[in-house]
Amino acid sequence: DRIERWLKSYSEASGQPFSPEQLDAVKTAVESRVFILTGGPGVGKTTTANAIIRLLIKMNRSVALAAPTGRAAQRLSEVAAVGAKTIHRLLEWSASEHTFLRDDVNPLDSQVVIVDEASMLDVHLAAALMRSLKPNGQIIFIGDVDQLPSVGPGNVLRDLIESQVVPFTKLSQIFRQAAGSAIVQAAHMINRGESPVFPEPNNSDCQFLTIDDPADIKEAIKTLVHSTLQKSGYDPIKDIQVLTPMNRGPLGTTVLNEDLQNLLNPAAVMGENLEAGNQVFRPGDKVIQTVNNYDLNVFNGDIGLVEHAGFDGGQLLVNFMDRKVTYMKEDAYDLKLAYSITIHKSQGSEFPVVIIPV
């Protein structure tokens, strides 16, 4: 079988042995019009996806990679070594016409579309994506079905799997390099309904600190961000992300963002700033877009850094890594400080260090 011979050769060249379920996933993916690859952390989804991409290219099929958010698309580009776009960019959203330019009348040029972080897809975006495929096109969804469902309506990935109509592979074997991670072990234990076991903190990538009082928890977070982790070489703004289940309350994003902004990026005398609602943005602040803004081409969950604030009558310049966006003051109300964000908003992102008050 030509596919099996290629997989054997690819595995030897890359030095990455494939499990039987990975081999089955690759073969099924390239032979199916619609396919889903799912599984928890550390089970080899990225390795399997890379093999699928390489094999499709070897078979002379044109491949487009996409993800629901800018951060997820950037991460996909990095791990796949192939350019990826947000789904909105792939489908060519027109701000003037308020519709996608790619549809069943004007389908995508690529024969195969691969969508990462597919658990974030709502029904509207999924429908637009399916309409944009060529009549003989293929689509492959990749995502962890146990992650939070989309913020928008629907639970597309889980519903497709549970329909038993669409071919899928759920990877379950944890690989040796991931098996040593306490984060991966804890995630799988929680999915199984078990209480995770946390090893000694000194040599573990996952630690649990027992602190009862919310005020003490907040002080511990500030010490970790501003002192402990910074001394270990982590940038407190770019590398560390505080995630919390809620916006309100003593450990919600509102309170934590105010405290962390004052700690990490305090106001300068005569410094630039822009007030929008109950927030003040300063150069250097980490911010997150909270709704889709098709005119500015920024989308819910995009995280960036403020470069300038309050210039030219109240504008804001934000660097979203792959692009810089100028906000008029009325659009800046859709931004929030992002030193702390909700777990829902973090979907599809990766951070070197995460702190979660529970």
Unreliable stretches (pLDDT < 50, length at least 5) are: none
Largest sheet: 6 strands, parallel
Number of strands: 18
Q: In angstroms, what separates the terminal alpha carbons?
A: 51 Å
Give a quick summary of the entry.
The chain has twelve helices and 18 strands.
What does this entry look like structurally?
- The radius of gyration is 22 Å and the shape is globular.
- Helices cover 33% and strands 21% of the residues.
- Strand 10 (274-276) and strand 11 form a beta hairpin.
- The strands form five sheets. A six-stranded parallel beta sheet has the order 3-2-6-7-1-8, with helices on both faces.
- The protein folds into three domains: 1-173, P-loop containing nucleotide triphosphate hydrolases (Rossmann fold, 3-Layer(aba) Sandwich); 175-208, no CATH class; 214-355, SH3 type barrels.
- The longest helix has 18 residues, at 214-231.
- It has helices at residues 2-14, 20-31, 45-58, 70-80, 87-90, 123-131, 156-162, 176-179, 182-191, 214-231, 253-264, 329-332, and strands spanning 34-39, 63-67, 84-86, 93-94, 99-100, 112-115, 138-143, 168-171, 240-244, 274-276, 279-281, 286-289, 303-311, 315-319, 324-327, 335-337, 340-342, 353-355.
- Helix 2 (20-31) packs across helix 3 (45-58).
- The model has no long low-confidence stretch (mean pLDDT 90).
- It contains twelve helices and 18 strands.
- With 358 residues, it is of the alpha/beta class.
Helices, strands, pairings?
Elements: H1 2-14, H2 20-31, E1 34-39, H3 45-58, E2 63-67, H4 70-80, E3 84-86, H5 87-90, E4 93-94, E5 99-100, E6 112-115, H6 123-131, E7 138-143, H7 156-162, E8 168-171, H8 176-179, H9 182-191, H10 214-231, E9 240-244, H11 253-264, E10 274-276, E11 279-281, E12 286-289, E13 303-311, E14 315-319, E15 324-327, H12 329-332, E16 335-337, E17 340-342, E18 353-355
Parallel strand pairs: 1-7, 1-8, 2-3, 2-6, 6-7, 9-17, 9-18
Antiparallel strand pairs: 4-5, 10-11, 12-13, 12-16, 13-14, 14-15
